[in-house]
Amino acid sequence: MRGIGAAWRRLRAWRRIYFTRGGLLFALGAFSVGFAAMNTGNNLLFLLLGAMLGTIVLSSWLSEQSIRDMEVRRRTPRGVSVGEPARIVYDVRNRKRKIPSFALLVHEEGLAEGAYLSRLDAGEERTIRSEHRFVRRGVYPLDAITLTTSFPFGLFRKERDVSQPGELVIWPRTDRPVPPVSAVGDRIRQQGTARWGAPGSRGEYRGLRGYRSGDDPRDIHWRSTARLGEPVVRQYERDAAQSLWICLDTRGKDHERVEATVEVAASLAARFRDDGKRFALATPGHRVEPGSGPAQLERVLDALARIEFEPDAPLVEPPVERERCVLVSISGRGAQGFGDVVATGRRGPAGYGTGTSADRAHRAPQRGNEA
User: pTM here?
Assistant: First the structure.
């Protein structure tokens, strides 16, 4: 039975033929003419029947030529945020030597829109695009590209599948308003006390480079500066302890609040990217190591697109001290020790409940109202 099912799927991928409404009426008309011709023996009816059957055969042959020997390659974006247009590009090539293809629709199961080609000459290659908008984040699997044509008379719709596994990654939004946050470690270091490593520690030494505006004068390498006649500074690799970690609490089941929590984490990452900060992401089942810039933001958004929430999920445990982390959570439960907390299920500044472990040490505990 399994072998029969596999053979059937291969056959369906090779060709599928459907009657259009006009084609069904035409076929019923041909059947009626044939029935009348057999009962009356009228030669004109037999001639009409032959013409109608010939039209059906010709339509089938021409539609077959339109989708035969076609090569299709799909190109998807690296990722697209919810609500933004996701443009999928198809490179279509006609590998036939003499016969052009007409009226081709390129589409995929699960996607609302397709891309259309009116004509593609023999040996020609063209690029077409389809545009889609998604209202939910996630990873949408792509399996096969379907070529469809109803050329030439619109009597049938003939389809052929071109296997091309892939995926379309829909990132969460990054434009939610988020309250100002910072880890306790950042504030301590800004006040001149290095909590991780020796006083004045800047991380692992990497090498020398030319001085840039804003560099710390303490990093100047005086021997190289004297030899070259221009300022040269030491360059350091900032370690994980000097990065701001976004810790996402994946406990929850309410879809609206779950998505709001993920979007807040994504918006925080976007803010850190804009501020030039090094940041990282930690969830109970996944980590994105520290980095900065647009590429780091894409890595974080990729991870957030795949996050799943569970009511009994464990609390996230960051790989560094909790004071170096910002916890993003629905309820804010289990937030003791975190440098900052954003609770999306509670009222507060900008619509969220916020607070830091340092601030909480100097004021009485307060509970926000449930949204």
Answer: 0.73
Q: What is the pLDDT of residues 137-150, one digit of tens each?
A: 999 999 999 999 99
**Dmax (CA) of the chain:** 112
SS3 track for the chain: CHHHHHHHHHHHHHCEEEECHHHHHHHHHHHHHHHHHHHHCCHHHHHHHHHHHHHHHHHHHHHHHHHCCEEEEEECCCCEECCCEEEEEEEEEECCCCCCEEEEEEEECCCCCCEEEEEECCCCEEEEEEEEECCCCEEEEEEEEEEEECCCCCCEEEEEEEEEEEEEEEECCCCCCCCCCCCHHHHHHHCCCCCCCCCCCCCEEEEEEECCCCCCHHHECHHHHHHHCCCEEEEEECCHHHCEEEEECCECCCHHHHHHHHHHHHHHHHHHHHCCCCEEEEECCEEEEEECHHHHHHHHHHHHHCCCCECCCCCCCCCCCHHHEEEEECCCCCCCCCCEEEECCECCHHHCEEECHHHHCCCCCCCCCEC
The per-residue pLDDT for range 335-364, each reduced to its tens digit, is 788 888 898 876 544 445 555 443 443 333
Q: Which CATH number fits domain 1-171: 3.40.50.1220, 3.20.20.70, 3.20.20.10, 2.60.40.10?
A: 2.60.40.10
